[in-house]
Specification:
The chain is built from 3 helices and no strands. By secondary structure, it is mostly helical. It has a domain at about 55-125.
Length: about 120
């Protein structure tokens, strides 16, 4: 019976409390489909797609894909580590997968940071 109360309390905390503490009502202009794209966001006019906008969209999509791959690798390695049952070979393989995933993510984020610095500081000035 106590477990049921804990589950109800947890559901209340996760689902109800955030809805109660909303400080501001949502902007109704966001939900107006005729208004979207006219004055909001980077796509002010749909007919003016610039090269920088296209490159930015491609880079954002690539980074999202890399983040998803990182998450899948971490889940894969964590699963294998948890199911290794004390076998050192499987544990070492899982640790190696985690290390490689983290190093790969650091390299990708570092390359993006360097590109962003070069683009904003050297090319745009």
């Amino acid at each position: 019976m106590f477990r049921l109360y804990k589950k109800i309390l947890l559901a209340f905390i996760i689902l109800i409390i955030p809805a109660i503490v909303m400080a501001e009502a949502p902007n109704k202009a966001i939900f107006n489909l005729q208004d979207v794209g006219s004055t909001h966001g980077p796509y002010e006019q749909a007919d003016k797609f610039t090269l920088s906008l296209i490159i930015g969209t491609v880079i954002s999509a690539a980074l999202a894909l890399i983040g998803a791959i990182f998450l899948v690798l971490m889940l894969y390695a964590g699963y294998h580590w948890l199911t290794a049952r004390g076998e050192e070979e499987k544990v070492e393989k899982a640790k190696d997968t985690i290390n490689r995933a983290v190093v790969g993510l650091i390299i990708v984020v570092g390359a993006y940071a360097i590109w962003q610095f070069i683009f904003t500081e050297l090319i745009l000035k």
